[in-house]
Amino acid sequence: MSSTDKNTKTSAEKKEEQSVIYLSDIWKGVIKFWWVAVILGIIVSLILSLTSYSKFRPVYETSATFTVNTETLSLSGEGLPSYAYYYDNATASNLADTFPYILQSDILTEAIRDDLDISYVPASLSAKAISSTNMFTLTASGSDPQATYDVLCSAMKNYPTAAKYLVGNVRLTVISKPVLPTEPVNKFTFAVAFRGFGIGVLLGAAWIFIYALFRKTAKTKRDVTEKLKLDVVGTLPEVTFKRYKNQKTDRSILIKNERIGKGFLESVRVMRNTFLHLVKENEKVIMVTSTAPGEGKTSVSVNLALSLADSGKKILLVDGDMRNPSVPGALNVNEKELKFTQENELCSIAPVEKYNVSYLRFTDKEHTYWKVMNVDYLTGLFGKLRDEYDFIIVDTPPCGLVSDSMLIAGTVDAIIYVVLQDTVRINRILGGIDTVSHTDSRVIGAVMNGAQSGLVGYGENYGYAYGGYGHYKNYSRYGYGYGYGYGYGSRRGKTKAKQKSAGK
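The structure assignment produced for this chain is given below.
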């Protein structure tokens, strides 16, 4: 294949990818802001409905149909009168055409006011000739049925007098008499409400389009390399479990779970091999973090540790998120069943035999937080343990919310940054990367998590169960028990920590 063909193919692939991303952004906008479209629809619908209702006035109509005859007569041979029929047809049309001028001259309106003894005419009048006949219809329209009827009756009486100044002497013969209207010819309908709702939804759609237009997130591996300037350590697809009624199933996101698909197992294996290729010989203490909660950093930490252990490495898994510890939940183990050995007064270590890894936890006494989150203490702890293990994987809080990650970053050798696909804005991710990059620790690269098969080339829709985005409540405020949200030292805080899913 020539270089021209390659360039053409690359350009076509980029256009296709941009199209997919664009639709993805719109779909994300629909999911996030569908309620905006609904609320706008309701608001616009109410505004138009109330405005239309306040302006609505019932209109009553009544009509009368006449034949038009001139007063000019001629005698036939037998001495019988005859009428100029053609002239009468022309007169009927002329009456309808000249009716607006009759109204403008105030001849008819003055006659109606005088006849009804009123100061103004409370109804409008219109005339229409019936084609090819000597008939025309006079119609009155107004908001009051009785007044409208009276105006038409007066117009019938005074119309010939007013018309003779323009068309000559005429005689009107009533064919259809007017009747008092009982119902308005117009009715208020809620069609305007539906139209208003549609307009509001369109405004919401415009909002979603603008959101999609300016939404910049990491959607592909190219975004990681070009926009974040990081190597791709791994790309983990989304894991979904089928639901079985009345049956408890293992839903842990672990490579040891037999219900995990082959696509996920293979992606973890590739991540492990890439990690071993990118990590330097002296980089043994590895920190795993992310920008925001819910991006799956704990699951990445745990599965990377288990995969490294499967390859024969001696691994220590450290739960460095004291505010919201979740490594035990991710490992699907009960801490009470583990046999801990006190390393020092601030931490203890226990082997997790079924996974062939060791787990380090910090003591949960409220006053120990500030002692643990200390550069000298952590540097000394990791310096001592690094000789005992091939790798120490440290799961930390999101660096985009709290300062713990920045402090820990200064005590480790290297950093893996977890990015949940198409979720956090690029500028926020860059801010988080910049935060941990102010230390001497090297950012090895990024793991793209929760990748959709259509965007990363996976043939199986295993996906990654990343626990959902936006779990901020445990980091929302700093309070008693050195925790955010629910106090870490409280009973409720411990219960919440145990219930946290593996995808924190």
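Interim note for the steering committee: The mean pLDDT is 80. Residues 60-176 form a domain with the Alpha-Beta Plaits fold (CATH 3.30.70.1130).
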